[in-house]
Amino acid sequence: MAAAQRIVIENCSIATVDANDTEYASGHVVVAGNRIEALGSGRAPEGLENVVRRIDASGHLVTPGLVNTHHHFYQWITRGLATDHNLFNWLVALYPTWARIDEPMVSAAARGSLAMMARGGVTTAMDHHYVHPRGSGDLSGAIIGAARETGVRFTLARGSMDRGESDGGLPPDFAVESLEGALAATEATVDEHHDASFDAMTQVAVAPCSPFSVTTELLKQGAELARRKGVRLHTHGSETVEEEKFCHELFGMGPTDYFESTGWLGEDVWMAHCVHMNDSDIAAFARTGTGVAHCPSSNARLAAGIARVPDMLAAGVPVGLGVDGTASNESGELHTELRNALLINRLGAHREAALNARQALRLGTYGGARVLGRAAQIGSLEPGKLADLVLWNLGTLAHSSIADPVTALVFGAAAPVTASFVNGRQIVEHGRMLTVDEDEIARSTRKEAQRLARIAAQS
Questions:
Q1: pLDDT per position as a tens digit, 360-418
Q2: DSSP for residue 365
């Protein structure tokens, strides 16, 4: 077997985000094949064999790649709509349009969403896709194909809805699946695409959409399916006060108690948002190891509220960051969520003590890896872990007078990405994608957005 080719990165600041938050003011990282082989202070050891590339990363901070734990790629082609709505009104306004999506639209939207995240430092992404109109084509295959093309590590949360308007749900009836159809299609997606290996590039989770768009039976049978297949579970939870009221009216209990009654708390579960959580809810998540995808920009855009992230972390709840769909976070970038998570949480009860720069970076890296069940492989820079890492350029005017590199990354302006590696393969160089044509993606997403708008207007 041929020896692994090595890439040596030197003269950089390093934030490993390991268990001890080890940092190096000037250090090196050695990548061998798709793994991190070594890292430490100073220059790399002399005499390394099979070095195919040396990178002088002076003026850069190297961190683990960012991990996005919640997104809806298809929304890329419905950005900028219903900009002054709360969640429920926003959903009612947009569901009729979303129900008209098809495979070419979803493919283009996924390519746009992935490229925007990757060029900003995301190396692991996920997509919660739950809109499957009849006759729309192979949407799961289109999304996974876009992720493979982009070169990003990826989890598809195969979503579903089976509670339409006639059953008291929010989505129109023609936008939902049957219980049996949703379960069968989800299982088929797991069977075809899920990879359980250490360095897997594609994994699948079972992901009914939300309490107000799925039946209790879909939640229960979805949980049973996921555990039979050995995959993770994902849904929306406790996002708004309206959801809290809906659950009490329909089920006679709050969202967390309802989820627990359907088998939806556990170490293999993570939920998006979790804004309206009381002490009992947080304790239940901590006791069961249930994870949270915190989406600060989307929560602010939809006026949902401020999630109690400091209290969750103090209780031991796994927490990562999410972009959420670009119809509620039009920037589509995760690195801005590091800053927004810190700032928005400081508006809450804990004020300036809510989060600091290193906690925000941990949310976006190791926290996200833990939420996705991949903390043993990614999320920190340690020998033996997969080589998913980012070189942030802090030598620019925007960061020139901030001495601490982690503070510069989190508190400062969005730092340019000089290079981003996934599985040891470089996918970004100087803020541009190497794997896809960004200009072509911009043209195709604009075209598909216009086509969707025309179809929706005629419906």
A1: 999 999 999 999 999 999 999 999 999 999 999 999 999 999 999 999 999 999 999 99
A2: I
Residue 176, phi then psi, degrees to nearest 5: -110, 160
Residue with token string 């040596």: 8
pLDDT in tens, 124-151: 999 999 999 989 999 999 999 999 999 9
User: DSSP state, 386?
Assistant: B
Q: Is the pLDDT of residue 30 over 70?
A: yes
Q: Which of 118-122, 165-169, 249-253, 349-353 has the lowest mean pLDDT?
A: 165-169
Instruction: Give the residue among 319, 316, 229 at the shortest CA–CA distance from 273.
Output: 319
Q: CA-based diameter of the chain, in Å?
A: 70
Q: What is the pLDDT of residue 1?
A: 57
Strands (E), 274-363: 291-294, 319-321
Let me know: does 388 contact 378? Beta carbons within 8 Å.
Answer: yes
Alpha carbons 165 and 21: distance in angstroms, whole number = 49
CA distances from 344 to 53, 117, 341 (A): 41, 21, 6
CA–CA–CA angle 200, 290, 222 (5° rounding): 70
User: Which strands form 233-237's sheet, in the order they lie side by side?
Assistant: 66-67, 122-129, 153-160, 202-208, 233-237, 269-273, 291-294, 319-321
Q: What angle do CA 81, 301, 343 make, to 5 degrees?
A: 150
| Rounded-to-integer distance, Cα 276 and Cα 152, Å | 32
Residue 294's beta-bridge partner residues?
321
- Exposed, middle or buried: residue 212 (CB in 10 Å: 0-12, 13-18, 19+)? buried
What is the torsion angle, in degrees rounded to the nearest 10, for the CA atoms of residue 273, residue 277, residue 279 and residue 285? -40
Q: How far is CA 60 from CA 57, 363, 384, in A?
A: 5, 21, 23
Q: Which amino acid is at 282?
A: I
The CA distance from 233 to 410, in Å, is: 30
Please, are residues 372 and 153 in contact by the beta-carbon 8 Å criterion? no
- Give the pLDDT of residue 322: 98
Q: What tokens does 170 get?
A: 């929010």
Query: What is d(CA 325, CA 192) in angstroms, rounded to the nearest whole number?
Result: 25
Nearest-Å Rg of the Cα atoms of the chain is: 21
